[in-house]
Specification:
binds S-adenosylmethionine, 2 domains, Rossmann fold, seven-stranded mixed sheet, two-stranded antiparallel sheet, single chain, alpha/beta, 9 strands
Length: 276
Protein backbone atom coordinates (compact mmCIF):
# COMPACT_ATOMS: atom_id res chain seq x y z
CA UNK A 1 0.00 0.00 0.00
CA UNK A 2 1.28 3.50 -0.75
CA UNK A 3 1.61 6.22 1.93
CA UNK A 4 -1.33 8.33 0.78
CA UNK A 5 -3.52 5.30 0.17
CA UNK A 6 -2.84 4.21 3.72
CA UNK A 7 -3.67 7.64 5.18
CA UNK A 8 -6.95 7.76 3.24
CA UNK A 9 -7.93 4.25 4.25
CA UNK A 10 -7.27 4.71 7.97
CA UNK A 11 -8.88 8.15 7.89
CA UNK A 12 -12.07 6.78 6.40
CA UNK A 13 -12.28 3.48 8.29
CA UNK A 14 -11.38 4.91 11.71
CA UNK A 15 -12.59 8.49 11.39
CA UNK A 16 -9.22 9.91 12.38
CA UNK A 17 -7.60 13.12 11.12
CA UNK A 18 -4.65 12.66 8.77
CA UNK A 19 -2.31 14.66 11.06
CA UNK A 20 -2.60 12.02 13.81
CA UNK A 21 -1.96 9.20 11.35
CA UNK A 22 1.05 11.02 9.91
CA UNK A 23 2.32 11.61 13.46
CA UNK A 24 2.21 7.89 14.28
CA UNK A 25 3.89 7.01 11.00
CA UNK A 26 6.65 9.53 11.58
CA UNK A 27 7.30 9.11 15.30
CA UNK A 28 6.74 5.38 15.65
CA UNK A 29 7.71 4.00 12.26
CA UNK A 30 10.04 6.74 11.07
CA UNK A 31 8.03 6.93 7.86
CA UNK A 32 7.77 10.52 6.70
CA UNK A 33 5.53 12.22 4.14
CA UNK A 34 8.37 12.66 1.70
CA UNK A 35 8.44 8.87 1.37
CA UNK A 36 4.99 9.11 -0.12
CA UNK A 37 5.80 6.51 -2.73
CA UNK A 38 7.14 4.00 -0.22
CA UNK A 39 5.19 0.80 0.13
CA UNK A 40 3.78 0.03 3.52
CA UNK A 41 3.56 -3.64 4.33
CA UNK A 42 0.92 -5.52 6.26
CA UNK A 43 2.88 -5.70 9.47
CA UNK A 44 3.21 -1.92 9.61
CA UNK A 45 -0.47 -1.64 8.75
CA UNK A 46 -1.53 -3.93 11.59
CA UNK A 47 0.60 -2.17 14.19
CA UNK A 48 -0.68 1.15 12.93
CA UNK A 49 -4.29 0.07 13.33
CA UNK A 50 -3.61 -1.07 16.88
CA UNK A 51 -2.15 2.36 17.66
CA UNK A 52 -5.03 4.14 16.00
CA UNK A 53 -7.42 2.22 18.25
CA UNK A 54 -5.52 3.27 21.38
CA UNK A 55 -5.63 6.86 20.20
CA UNK A 56 -9.37 6.65 19.53
CA UNK A 57 -9.81 5.20 23.04
CA UNK A 58 -8.39 8.43 24.46
CA UNK A 59 -4.70 7.75 25.06
CA UNK A 60 -2.31 10.67 24.48
CA UNK A 61 -0.52 10.36 21.16
CA UNK A 62 2.90 10.53 22.86
CA UNK A 63 2.16 7.35 24.85
CA UNK A 64 0.75 5.68 21.75
CA UNK A 65 3.93 6.23 19.76
CA UNK A 66 6.08 5.79 22.87
CA UNK A 67 8.20 8.89 22.54
CA UNK A 68 8.16 12.67 22.46
CA UNK A 69 10.47 15.32 21.15
CA UNK A 70 11.84 17.53 23.92
CA UNK A 71 14.37 20.26 23.13
CA UNK A 72 15.40 18.40 19.98
CA UNK A 73 15.90 15.02 21.66
CA UNK A 74 13.70 11.97 21.56
CA UNK A 75 12.49 10.86 25.00
CA UNK A 76 10.82 7.50 25.53
CA UNK A 77 7.56 7.93 27.44
CA UNK A 78 4.75 5.70 28.61
CA UNK A 79 2.19 5.68 31.40
CA UNK A 80 4.97 5.54 34.00
CA UNK A 81 5.87 9.20 33.47
CA UNK A 82 4.42 12.60 32.75
CA UNK A 83 4.70 13.67 29.12
CA UNK A 84 7.24 16.53 29.11
CA UNK A 85 5.57 19.81 28.10
CA UNK A 86 6.63 22.74 25.91
CA UNK A 87 6.73 25.13 28.90
CA UNK A 88 9.35 22.92 30.48
CA UNK A 89 11.58 23.46 27.45
CA UNK A 90 11.48 27.14 28.33
CA UNK A 91 12.56 26.37 31.90
CA UNK A 92 15.49 24.40 30.49
CA UNK A 93 16.38 27.22 28.09
CA UNK A 94 16.56 29.94 30.77
CA UNK A 95 18.31 27.66 33.25
CA UNK A 96 20.99 26.93 30.68
CA UNK A 97 21.50 30.69 30.21
CA UNK A 98 21.78 31.27 33.95
CA UNK A 99 24.19 28.38 34.44
CA UNK A 100 26.43 29.79 31.73
CA UNK A 101 26.19 33.26 33.26
CA UNK A 102 26.82 32.40 36.92
CA UNK A 103 28.93 29.25 37.06
CA UNK A 104 32.30 28.29 35.61
CA UNK A 105 33.42 24.71 36.25
CA UNK A 106 32.65 21.57 38.26
CA UNK A 107 29.01 22.50 38.17
CA UNK A 108 26.56 20.11 39.79
CA UNK A 109 22.83 20.04 39.20
CA UNK A 110 20.00 18.04 40.74
CA UNK A 111 16.67 17.54 38.96
CA UNK A 112 14.07 16.72 41.62
CA UNK A 113 11.01 14.80 40.41
CA UNK A 114 12.76 13.98 37.17
CA UNK A 115 10.06 11.75 35.60
CA UNK A 116 11.30 10.92 32.09
CA UNK A 117 14.53 12.77 32.87
CA UNK A 118 13.66 15.45 30.32
CA UNK A 119 15.00 18.41 32.30
CA UNK A 120 18.21 17.01 33.76
CA UNK A 121 19.17 14.97 30.71
CA UNK A 122 18.59 17.86 28.32
CA UNK A 123 20.77 20.14 30.43
CA UNK A 124 23.47 17.45 30.52
CA UNK A 125 23.29 17.24 26.73
CA UNK A 126 23.45 21.04 26.39
CA UNK A 127 26.27 21.47 28.93
CA UNK A 128 28.25 18.21 28.85
CA UNK A 129 30.56 19.20 31.71
CA UNK A 130 27.61 19.38 34.16
CA UNK A 131 27.46 16.75 36.88
CA UNK A 132 23.81 15.80 36.83
CA UNK A 133 21.74 13.90 39.39
CA UNK A 134 18.17 12.79 38.74
CA UNK A 135 15.87 11.87 41.62
CA UNK A 136 12.25 10.82 41.87
CA UNK A 137 10.07 9.02 44.40
CA UNK A 138 8.65 6.79 41.66
CA UNK A 139 10.71 3.69 40.87
CA UNK A 140 8.90 3.45 37.54
CA UNK A 141 9.89 7.00 36.63
CA UNK A 142 13.49 6.22 37.54
CA UNK A 143 13.41 3.23 35.19
CA UNK A 144 12.27 5.54 32.42
CA UNK A 145 14.86 8.21 33.13
CA UNK A 146 17.56 5.49 33.05
CA UNK A 147 16.28 4.30 29.68
CA UNK A 148 16.43 7.84 28.36
CA UNK A 149 19.91 8.47 29.76
CA UNK A 150 21.09 5.31 28.03
CA UNK A 151 19.35 6.15 24.73
CA UNK A 152 20.91 9.60 24.71
CA UNK A 153 24.32 8.23 25.73
CA UNK A 154 24.47 10.41 28.84
CA UNK A 155 26.17 9.58 32.13
CA UNK A 156 24.23 10.89 35.13
CA UNK A 157 23.53 9.78 38.72
CA UNK A 158 20.06 8.42 39.32
CA UNK A 159 18.54 7.44 42.65
CA UNK A 160 15.29 7.30 44.53
CA UNK A 161 14.50 10.15 46.89
CA UNK A 162 11.38 11.53 48.50
CA UNK A 163 12.02 15.14 47.49
CA UNK A 164 15.41 15.99 49.08
CA UNK A 165 15.41 13.41 51.88
CA UNK A 166 17.91 10.96 50.40
CA UNK A 167 20.09 13.76 49.02
CA UNK A 168 20.35 15.28 52.51
CA UNK A 169 21.24 11.87 53.94
CA UNK A 170 24.00 11.51 51.37
CA UNK A 171 25.29 14.99 52.32
CA UNK A 172 25.51 15.98 48.65
CA UNK A 173 25.81 19.67 47.69
CA UNK A 174 24.70 21.23 44.43
CA UNK A 175 25.12 24.45 42.48
CA UNK A 176 21.75 24.13 40.81
CA UNK A 177 18.46 22.73 42.07
CA UNK A 178 15.89 22.43 39.32
CA UNK A 179 12.41 20.98 39.62
CA UNK A 180 9.05 20.73 37.96
CA UNK A 181 7.21 19.21 40.91
CA UNK A 182 3.56 18.15 40.94
CA UNK A 183 1.60 21.38 41.49
CA UNK A 184 -2.06 20.87 40.67
CA UNK A 185 -4.80 20.95 43.31
CA UNK A 186 -7.33 18.13 43.41
CA UNK A 187 -10.16 20.51 42.53
CA UNK A 188 -8.33 22.05 39.58
CA UNK A 189 -10.05 21.48 36.28
CA UNK A 190 -7.73 19.52 34.08
CA UNK A 191 -8.31 17.88 30.76
CA UNK A 192 -9.73 14.37 30.92
CA UNK A 193 -6.94 13.04 28.72
CA UNK A 194 -4.41 14.15 31.37
CA UNK A 195 -6.43 13.00 34.40
CA UNK A 196 -7.17 9.57 32.94
CA UNK A 197 -3.74 8.78 31.54
CA UNK A 198 -0.87 10.54 33.26
CA UNK A 199 0.38 9.32 36.68
CA UNK A 200 -1.45 11.17 39.46
CA UNK A 201 1.76 11.17 41.51
CA UNK A 202 3.17 13.49 38.85
CA UNK A 203 0.23 15.88 38.91
CA UNK A 204 -1.06 16.77 42.35
CA UNK A 205 0.69 18.94 44.90
CA UNK A 206 -1.53 18.59 47.96
CA UNK A 207 -4.62 20.62 48.86
CA UNK A 208 -3.26 23.95 47.72
CA UNK A 209 -0.84 22.65 45.06
CA UNK A 210 2.13 24.03 47.00
CA UNK A 211 3.13 21.01 49.09
CA UNK A 212 6.29 20.18 47.14
CA UNK A 213 7.45 23.78 46.77
CA UNK A 214 7.21 24.14 50.56
CA UNK A 215 9.38 21.06 51.04
CA UNK A 216 11.89 22.22 48.44
CA UNK A 217 12.27 25.70 49.91
CA UNK A 218 12.39 24.38 53.47
CA UNK A 219 15.23 21.93 52.74
CA UNK A 220 17.06 23.54 49.81
CA UNK A 221 19.85 25.14 51.86
CA UNK A 222 20.80 21.70 53.16
CA UNK A 223 21.76 20.53 49.70
CA UNK A 224 22.92 23.76 48.07
CA UNK A 225 26.44 25.15 47.92
CA UNK A 226 27.10 28.67 49.28
CA UNK A 227 26.29 30.15 45.89
CA UNK A 228 23.46 28.50 44.00
CA UNK A 229 20.56 28.74 41.62
CA UNK A 230 17.04 27.41 42.18
CA UNK A 231 14.94 26.98 39.03
CA UNK A 232 11.31 25.90 39.28
CA UNK A 233 8.40 25.42 36.96
CA UNK A 234 5.26 26.81 38.63
CA UNK A 235 1.53 26.81 37.98
CA UNK A 236 0.19 29.89 36.18
CA UNK A 237 -1.58 31.24 39.30
CA UNK A 238 1.10 30.36 41.84
CA UNK A 239 3.66 33.17 41.43
CA UNK A 240 2.55 35.17 44.53
CA UNK A 241 2.57 32.09 46.75
CA UNK A 242 5.97 30.99 45.48
CA UNK A 243 7.39 34.48 46.12
CA UNK A 244 6.03 34.31 49.70
CA UNK A 245 7.75 30.96 50.23
CA UNK A 246 10.99 32.30 48.76
CA UNK A 247 10.87 35.30 51.10
CA UNK A 248 10.22 33.05 54.06
CA UNK A 249 13.12 30.67 53.46
CA UNK A 250 15.51 32.87 51.43
CA UNK A 251 14.82 36.32 52.84
CA UNK A 252 16.31 39.13 50.76
CA UNK A 253 17.51 36.86 47.96
CA UNK A 254 16.93 38.16 44.44
CA UNK A 255 14.45 36.16 42.41
CA UNK A 256 12.72 36.36 39.07
CA UNK A 257 9.42 35.16 37.70
CA UNK A 258 9.47 34.46 33.99
CA UNK A 259 6.53 34.16 31.64
CA UNK A 260 6.11 31.37 29.12
CA UNK A 261 5.44 32.03 25.43
CA UNK A 262 1.75 32.35 26.21
CA UNK A 263 2.42 35.15 28.68
CA UNK A 264 1.70 33.15 31.83
CA UNK A 265 3.92 33.22 34.94
CA UNK A 266 5.43 29.75 34.68
CA UNK A 267 9.01 29.87 35.88
CA UNK A 268 10.70 30.96 39.08
CA UNK A 269 14.43 31.53 39.56
CA UNK A 270 16.20 32.29 42.81
CA UNK A 271 19.75 33.59 42.86
CA UNK A 272 21.34 32.55 46.14
CA UNK A 273 24.49 34.62 46.83
CA UNK A 274 25.11 34.87 43.09
CA UNK A 275 25.62 38.66 42.95
CA UNK A 276 24.66 40.51 39.77
C1 LIG B 1 5.18 17.28 37.07
S1 LIG B 1 6.11 15.77 37.04
C2 LIG B 1 7.57 16.35 36.25
C3 LIG B 1 8.30 15.31 35.47
C4 LIG B 1 9.50 15.85 34.66
N1 LIG B 1 10.46 16.49 35.54
C5 LIG B 1 9.03 16.83 33.62
O1 LIG B 1 9.22 18.03 33.80
O2 LIG B 1 8.49 16.40 32.59
C6 LIG B 1 6.53 15.58 38.73
C7 LIG B 1 7.46 14.43 39.09
O3 LIG B 1 7.65 14.45 40.52
C8 LIG B 1 7.67 13.14 41.00
N2 LIG B 1 7.33 13.16 42.44
C9 LIG B 1 6.11 13.18 43.02
N3 LIG B 1 6.21 13.19 44.36
C10 LIG B 1 7.56 13.16 44.64
C11 LIG B 1 8.31 13.15 45.84
N4 LIG B 1 7.72 13.15 47.03
N5 LIG B 1 9.66 13.11 45.75
C12 LIG B 1 10.28 13.09 44.54
N6 LIG B 1 9.61 13.11 43.37
C13 LIG B 1 8.27 13.15 43.41
C14 LIG B 1 6.67 12.38 40.14
O4 LIG B 1 6.91 11.00 40.18
C15 LIG B 1 6.92 13.04 38.78
O5 LIG B 1 7.87 12.31 38.05
Amino acid sequence: MKYQELIDRVKNEYDLDSKSIEYILEYYFNIKGELEYASIDNEVFNILINKVKRLKAGEPIQYVVGNVDFYGNKFTVDKRVLIPRFETEELVHYTKEYINKYFKENISLIDVGTGSGAIGLTLKKEIPSLNVTLVDISTEALEMSSINAKNLGLKVNIYKSDMLKETIKRKEKYDVLISNPPYLTKIEEIMDIVKKNEPSIALYGGNDGLKYYRLLFRDAKLILKDKALIALEIGATQADDIIKLANKYFEGCPYEIKKDLEGRDRMFFLFYNLGD
